[in-house]
Specification:
Number of helices: 14
CATH topology of the largest domain: Rossmann fold
Radius of gyration: 25 Å
Strand order of the largest sheet: 12-11-8-15-18-19-21-22
Structural class: alpha/beta
CATH architecture of the largest domain: 3-Layer(aba) Sandwich
Shape: elongated
Length: about 425
């Protein structure tokens, strides 16, 4: 796993819910990403899992009633100052209602009250308890305050009933923690469209024309943009990795479908984002109109079958040879209305000697803000977890990124665009 949270400080609060076992996986994800993780437990949480288990996973002493010390920072004030982000998962109905009313009758609640940044909470409760009007009111109050409330899942609960109230998956909570730590003002409230994967052009209902593009670079870009705080929409024929539930995902097949959804998304993006102030913040609802970005990393088929056949063509009727007539697809990137957007194209080449020449020609011909050039060894280069990109900008600037994991490379590309002023 990429060390995208290297040296970042995450405080995890756990309460007395059967879903506490999921917190172990959350801590594993956080530590594997490089974060330093510390834990504060309620006394009821210790009925489910001992502090020793959390200490083993985090390599840090857990704060609970029997371990609090004022000779170090192992206390509710010390940890509230130490943490860069604070996530409570699971958060029981009891904890939710107490948080909303400012109660501080245990160490976890005292730590939350002393923490003066956004707190992420992931509720976990029986359906009737989570849907109780008192709990619903508390959740609304927390959302208006300094809390980010994650949604619950509908599934069979520990009480053997089907319904809402299950804690979000550890991966989804992890995504939200990363977003809280890695978001940047440049990308916040900015709409960004990412495309990925190879388009699929049907010959009949069982055969198609496509290419080797895996969609991994597009997925990595979409994830990186979410982590940086953007309002991202990922349009792709393939989704090789899980993406945050809150991100927009549109599945397409053909170049025509891709063209339609890109144009629709650009029209929406140009309208900007409506942002409402939180409770206690001054100002009115505002329309944020940052220049939207398009990262066109999909591999669009140059041609499609001239005729798409219904059903399945019978091979014995086709014969020993098949002259399949093709017609050219529209060049989506060249024909897009780029007024008011920054469009970045991706170009894969196998010719090392002329790759840069082709990238510069693409930049000019398609009137792009930038081109990301990827030199491939052969078809086996597709689907790898790492990549190397040469960036060409329309002002003549060129920059070579080292070979990195696709997620880290995506983060670096976004940081580069943030730091340039064209």
């Amino acid at each position: 796993m990429d060390k995208i949270l290297k040296d970042r400080r995450v405080l995890v609060g756990v309460t007395g819910s059967i879903a506490i076992y999921k917190s172990l996986e959350l801590i594993r994800l956080l530590t594997k990403s490089g974060a330093t993780v510390r834990i504060v437990m309620s006394e009821n949480a210790k009925k489910f899992i001992t502090p020793l288990t959390f200490e083993t996973l985090s390599s840090n002493i857990v704060l609970h009633e029997n371990s609090e010390s004022w000779a170090s920072d192992l206390n509710h004030i010390g940890l509230s100052k130490w943490a860069e982000t604070f996530v409570i998962a699971p958060a029981t109905a009891n904890t939710i209602n107490k948080l909303a009313n400012g109660f501080a009758d245990n160490l976890l609640l005292q730590t939350a009250l002393a923490y003066n940044h956004i707190i992420i909470i992931s509720p976990s409760a029986n359906t009737n308890m989570i849907n109780n009007t008192i709990t619903e009111g508390s959740l609304k109050l927390l959302k208006l305050s300094n809390f980010k409330v994650l949604g619950t899942q509908k599934k069979e609960l520990a009480c053997k009933t089907e319904g809402d109230g299950a804690m979000a998956s550890p991966e989804e909570i992890f995504f939200e923690v990363v977003r809280d730590l890695l978001s940047r003002d440049f990308w916040k409230n900015r709409r960004v469209i990412v495309t990925g994967g190879g388009t699929i052009e049907k010959i009949d209902e069982v055969r198609y024309i496509s290419n080797f593009s895996s969609g991994k670079m597009g997925s990595a870009l979409a994830k990186a943009l979410y982590f940086r705080g953007a309002d991202v929409c990922f349009i792709s024929s393939r989704f090789p990795e899980s993406l945050p539930n809150e991100s927009c995902k549109i599945e397409i097949q053909s170049a025509d479908e891709l063209n339609k959804y890109i144009n629709d998304s650009i029209r929406i993006a140009k309208k900007g984002l409506i942002v409402k102030p939180k409770l206690g913040e001054s100002g009115k609802t505002q329309l944020i109109q940052k220049i939207p970005y398009l990262f066109m990393s999909s591999a669009v088929a140059d041609y499609r079958p001239k005729i798409k056949h219904d059903g399945k063509l019978k091979s014995h009727l086709i014969g020993a040879s098949w002259n399949l007539e093709l017609t050219e697809n529209i060049d989506i990137l060249e024909n897009l209305d780029k007024n008011g957007i920054r469009a970045i194209g991706f170009k894969a080449e196998t010719d090392k000697s002329r790759g840069s020449e082709y990238a510069r020609a693409m930049l000019e011909k398609k009137d792009l803000y930038g081109v990301c050039l990827n030199i491939l060894e052969n078809s086996e280069s597709f689907g790898s977890d790492s990549n190397q990109i040469d960036l060409f900008l329309r002002n003549g600037t060129e920059f070579k990124f080292p070979k990195l994991s696709k997620l880290q490379l995506s983060l670096d590309i976004l940081d580069y665009f943030e730091n340039i002023d064209l």
